[in-house]
Amino acid sequence: MLTLIGILIVIVGFAFRFNPLLVVVVSGIVTGVAGQLPMEKILTIFGEAFIKNRYLSLFILTLPVIGLLERSGLKEQSQALIGKIKAATTGRILILYLFIREVAAAIGLTALGGHAQMVRPLVAPMAEAAAQNKHGVLPEKTRNKIRAYAASADNVGVFFGEDVFIAFGAILLMKGFYEQYGIFLEPLEMAMWGIPTAITAFIIHATRLFFFDRQIAREVAAAAGECSEEREEVCEESLTAEASLD
Amino acid sequence: MIISLEYIYYICGAFMALIALLALKDGSNPKRGMTATFWGLFAVSFLFGKVIPSMYMGVLVIVMAVIAGFGGVRLGSYSEASEESRVMSAKKLGNKLFIPALLIPVITVIGTLGLHDVKIGSLALLDKANITLVSLGVACIVALLAALGLTKESGMQSVKESRRLVDAIGWAAVLPQMLASLGALFAVAGVGQAVSNLVSSAIPVDNRFLVVFAYVAGMALFTMVMGNAFAAFPVMTAGIGLPLIIQMHGGNPAVMAAIGMFSGYCGTLMTPMAANYNIVPAALLDLADKNAVIKAQMPTALMLLTANVFLMYSLVF
Description:
The structure holds two protein chains of two kinds. Chain A is an all-alpha fold. Chain A contains twelve helices and no strands. Chain A has two domains: 2-52, no CATH class; 58-245, no CATH class. Helices cover 76% and strands 0% of the residues of chain A. In chain A, helix 2 crosses helix 3. In chain B, strands 1-2 form a two-stranded antiparallel ribbon. Classes of the chains: A mainly alpha, B mainly alpha.
């Protein structure tokens, strides 16, 4: 039971916004000590796992390409392109991306997407541009929310698509796990039973993205309403009200 | 094999070493020595990870965490292109700008599917065990060459541009690896068993619905703690799923595994511990709130988790 203290440290550390790297290291050492591991063993596990998982950081190799293209106007070009498509809205672009990402992952093409490769250079600027073309300059809060939703479309798409593909690691992990307990299953069976959840995930997230367009419109209107010329007094009032709150 | 994953790590290491060097020369960064040390150590882990004994790597990892923890990784100054010059360049290059960006996913997919069995002589061209990662590495290099050719910029300029992005991500770039290390420690110290004991002692086992609920919610919660559904699956399934749902109530193992794993993924959507999906993207997208992506995903994850409880309850028995 004492080993659970590491989990507590992580939760408290994250909640109090200490630097996560430090939280992780402290939690790891405490967990190791609580689990009666010698210090050398704790260090060895840290080092070994860090090296084994270097692949998680390979995304940095995309950054020289993305950086160079951004310097040459990639975002501006994405925005110009979206400007030409009248039907494009933030919600529709993200629903389309969610769909492509999930279907591609379901047939094994998980590499077709990603935050560094697709979301930062292409999807997020396009989603932003679509809203900007409709509403003009966006409030900071709304712009950040659009970017966060673009990242969410990537995650939801790939997570709930990939398990439907029979050669994916998760399916093989399940198969291997059951075999240890004498249960033998075909990968196809497990992949198939993932389909109901995969479809539900698409419906839920696409619906939220559909309503996201209205939310953007509301937020823009609210921001404009606060300080529009006709209502200057109201705006000033609310500003002074805010000031007095401070 | 001709191109192994280790070579891709060497390239990554050389790149990070350049970043460290540029950081050291950046006088506008008040902690340039610390910042350069941080990225330099990261470079060392890529270049010499295979030869340095694990225990010393562990020490190196902790030094990196301490540097980051006490605010040693800071921003410098970057000679960014002005908006005018970017718009001008976009007008000139037009949609050709998309080609190098799209080359990355396209070549990765071609490499993964098409070059799987390609051999030169008796040697496999790509490392089969890590084919997607190796393909990604190769794709980035090809895309970089295409981008250099298209923009007529120098190679060093691309490193300078990427330093702007690397620094914006900052210490978060290392967080996914660090969390994976924590997961490994949790596993060795027996944290999983303790959690599963806790959950199985808290539920009335003869109620089918509650057992399903406990397994689905347990997968999500434990994934949130570990940051990884793959780590949660064996623990929760051995602790709750297998003895209670399958053996006691006669549930279908294929249904349980499929929906159980997806319940874990709902947890992944809600946790900062899954840094590579949630925290790194927030940094990549210049979001001040590092939890912004999690907040955008939270309602979807909770609704889907609820749906999973009912899907499993109706399909598994």
